[in-house]
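Page 42, continued from yesterday. The earlier attempt failed because a stray header line got pasted into the input along with the sequence. Redoing it now with the clean sequence only.
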Amino acid sequence: MTMKSVLAGLACTAALMLAPTALAQGEANLAAEEIARTYMAHYSNLELDAMEAMLADDVAFRDPTAETEEHGFDGLTSAGRDAMMGLLREFVETYDPIELGFEWDQVYTSNSRVIFIGHVNALYPTQTEGQNFRWRSDQVSVVTVRDGMVVRHDDFANYATPEQGMIAAEPGH
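This time it went through. C-alpha coordinates are written below.
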Protein backbone atom coordinates (compact mmCIF):
# COMPACT_ATOMS: atom_id res chain seq x y z
CA MET A 1 0.00 0.00 0.00
CA THR A 2 1.38 3.38 -0.97
CA MET A 3 1.46 6.44 1.26
CA LYS A 4 -0.96 8.14 -1.12
CA SER A 5 -3.58 5.38 -0.74
CA VAL A 6 -3.14 5.39 3.07
CA LEU A 7 -3.73 9.17 3.17
CA ALA A 8 -6.75 8.83 0.89
CA GLY A 9 -8.16 6.12 3.16
CA LEU A 10 -7.65 8.29 6.24
CA ALA A 11 -9.33 11.25 4.54
CA CYS A 12 -12.36 9.10 3.60
CA THR A 13 -12.59 7.72 7.14
CA ALA A 14 -12.42 11.24 8.64
CA ALA A 15 -15.10 12.48 6.22
CA LEU A 16 -17.39 9.60 7.11
CA MET A 17 -16.87 10.20 10.82
CA LEU A 18 -17.63 13.93 10.49
CA ALA A 19 -20.68 13.49 8.24
CA PRO A 20 -23.15 12.69 11.08
CA THR A 21 -21.88 15.69 13.07
CA ALA A 22 -22.27 18.00 10.06
CA LEU A 23 -25.73 16.59 9.36
CA ALA A 24 -26.82 17.07 12.98
CA GLN A 25 -25.49 20.65 13.00
CA GLY A 26 -27.28 21.35 9.72
CA GLU A 27 -30.55 20.11 11.22
CA ALA A 28 -29.95 22.16 14.38
CA ASN A 29 -29.29 25.25 12.25
CA LEU A 30 -32.52 24.75 10.29
CA ALA A 31 -34.52 24.38 13.51
CA ALA A 32 -32.78 27.40 15.07
CA GLU A 33 -33.50 29.54 12.01
CA GLU A 34 -37.18 28.61 12.00
CA ILE A 35 -37.48 29.49 15.70
CA ALA A 36 -35.49 32.72 15.30
CA ARG A 37 -37.52 33.86 12.28
CA THR A 38 -40.77 33.31 14.19
CA TYR A 39 -39.35 35.11 17.23
CA MET A 40 -38.17 38.08 15.14
CA ALA A 41 -41.56 38.32 13.42
CA HIS A 42 -43.13 38.64 16.89
CA TYR A 43 -40.49 41.26 17.80
CA SER A 44 -41.17 43.18 14.58
CA ASN A 45 -44.90 43.29 15.33
CA LEU A 46 -44.38 43.95 19.06
CA GLU A 47 -46.19 40.75 20.02
CA LEU A 48 -44.52 40.71 23.41
CA ASP A 49 -46.39 37.78 24.94
CA ALA A 50 -45.53 35.59 21.94
CA MET A 51 -41.87 36.67 22.19
CA GLU A 52 -41.79 35.96 25.90
CA ALA A 53 -43.05 32.41 25.36
CA MET A 54 -40.01 31.71 23.17
CA LEU A 55 -37.41 32.93 25.70
CA ALA A 56 -35.34 30.77 28.01
CA ASP A 57 -35.53 31.76 31.69
CA ASP A 58 -31.89 32.91 31.61
CA VAL A 59 -31.99 34.71 28.24
CA ALA A 60 -29.48 37.51 27.76
CA PHE A 61 -30.41 40.64 25.80
CA ARG A 62 -27.90 43.22 24.67
CA ASP A 63 -27.88 46.30 22.46
CA PRO A 64 -24.45 47.90 22.93
CA THR A 65 -25.26 50.49 20.25
CA ALA A 66 -28.06 51.92 22.46
CA GLU A 67 -25.50 53.81 24.49
CA THR A 68 -27.05 56.63 26.53
CA GLU A 69 -26.29 58.49 29.74
CA GLU A 70 -28.75 56.25 31.53
CA HIS A 71 -27.41 52.98 30.11
CA GLY A 72 -23.75 53.93 29.79
CA PHE A 73 -21.10 52.62 27.43
CA ASP A 74 -22.51 49.08 27.35
CA GLY A 75 -25.92 50.25 26.12
CA LEU A 76 -28.99 48.19 26.91
CA THR A 77 -28.31 44.91 28.68
CA SER A 78 -30.45 42.53 30.64
CA ALA A 79 -30.13 39.07 32.11
CA GLY A 80 -33.18 36.85 32.40
CA ARG A 81 -36.59 36.73 30.77
CA ASP A 82 -38.27 39.07 33.26
CA ALA A 83 -35.55 41.73 32.92
CA MET A 84 -35.58 41.58 29.11
CA MET A 85 -39.34 41.75 28.86
CA GLY A 86 -39.35 44.58 31.40
CA LEU A 87 -37.07 46.60 29.10
CA LEU A 88 -39.25 45.91 26.08
CA ARG A 89 -42.52 46.64 27.89
CA GLU A 90 -41.07 49.90 29.24
CA PHE A 91 -40.04 50.87 25.69
CA VAL A 92 -43.55 50.14 24.37
CA GLU A 93 -45.23 52.03 27.23
CA THR A 94 -42.91 55.03 26.84
CA TYR A 95 -42.87 55.41 23.04
CA ASP A 96 -46.09 53.65 21.96
CA PRO A 97 -44.66 52.22 18.71
CA ILE A 98 -47.06 50.80 16.14
CA GLU A 99 -44.46 48.31 14.90
CA LEU A 100 -40.72 47.88 14.53
CA GLY A 101 -41.19 46.76 10.92
CA PHE A 102 -37.98 44.79 10.39
CA GLU A 103 -36.90 44.09 6.80
CA TRP A 104 -34.12 41.54 6.45
CA ASP A 105 -31.88 41.69 3.37
CA GLN A 106 -29.85 38.71 4.51
CA VAL A 107 -30.33 35.94 7.06
CA TYR A 108 -27.86 33.18 7.74
CA THR A 109 -27.32 30.63 10.49
CA SER A 110 -24.10 29.36 11.99
CA ASN A 111 -23.90 27.10 15.03
CA SER A 112 -27.46 27.90 16.13
CA ARG A 113 -26.84 31.64 15.88
CA VAL A 114 -29.16 33.28 13.40
CA ILE A 115 -27.87 36.56 11.98
CA PHE A 116 -30.38 39.04 10.55
CA ILE A 117 -29.01 41.92 8.46
CA GLY A 118 -31.31 44.66 7.22
CA HIS A 119 -33.34 47.54 8.60
CA VAL A 120 -35.70 48.55 11.35
CA ASN A 121 -38.63 50.67 10.10
CA ALA A 122 -40.26 51.67 13.35
CA LEU A 123 -43.60 53.47 13.10
CA TYR A 124 -45.01 55.70 15.80
CA PRO A 125 -48.37 57.46 15.94
CA THR A 126 -48.52 61.24 15.83
CA GLN A 127 -51.05 63.89 16.78
CA THR A 128 -51.78 64.47 13.08
CA GLU A 129 -54.44 62.21 11.63
CA GLY A 130 -53.27 60.27 8.60
CA GLN A 131 -49.56 60.58 9.47
CA ASN A 132 -47.06 58.46 11.32
CA PHE A 133 -43.49 59.10 12.35
CA ARG A 134 -41.03 56.64 10.82
CA TRP A 135 -37.58 55.87 12.23
CA ARG A 136 -35.52 53.76 9.80
CA SER A 137 -32.03 52.49 10.48
CA ASP A 138 -29.58 49.80 9.52
CA GLN A 139 -29.99 46.89 11.93
CA VAL A 140 -28.19 43.64 12.67
CA SER A 141 -29.75 41.20 15.13
CA VAL A 142 -28.18 37.96 16.31
CA VAL A 143 -30.47 35.41 17.93
CA THR A 144 -29.00 32.33 19.60
CA VAL A 145 -31.23 29.28 20.00
CA ARG A 146 -30.59 26.29 22.27
CA ASP A 147 -32.99 23.45 23.01
CA GLY A 148 -35.76 25.19 21.08
CA MET A 149 -35.59 28.43 23.10
CA VAL A 150 -34.02 31.83 22.48
CA VAL A 151 -31.10 32.09 24.92
CA ARG A 152 -29.48 35.28 23.63
CA HIS A 153 -30.58 38.28 21.58
CA ASP A 154 -28.11 40.93 20.44
CA ASP A 155 -29.19 44.03 18.51
CA PHE A 156 -26.95 46.49 16.73
CA ALA A 157 -28.63 49.56 15.22
CA ASN A 158 -27.26 52.62 13.48
CA TYR A 159 -28.54 55.18 15.98
CA ALA A 160 -26.09 57.79 14.65
CA THR A 161 -27.66 58.40 11.24
CA PRO A 162 -31.19 57.02 10.97
CA GLU A 163 -33.68 58.23 8.39
CA GLN A 164 -36.60 59.80 10.18
CA GLY A 165 -39.63 61.84 9.36
CA MET A 166 -43.34 61.94 8.80
CA ILE A 167 -45.00 59.50 6.40
CA ALA A 168 -48.58 58.86 5.41
CA ALA A 169 -50.31 56.38 7.68
CA GLU A 170 -51.36 53.15 6.05
CA PRO A 171 -54.87 51.88 6.71
CA GLY A 172 -54.88 50.12 10.05
CA HIS A 173 -51.84 52.03 11.31
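Notes: The mean pLDDT is 88.
Reminder to self: strip header lines before submitting.
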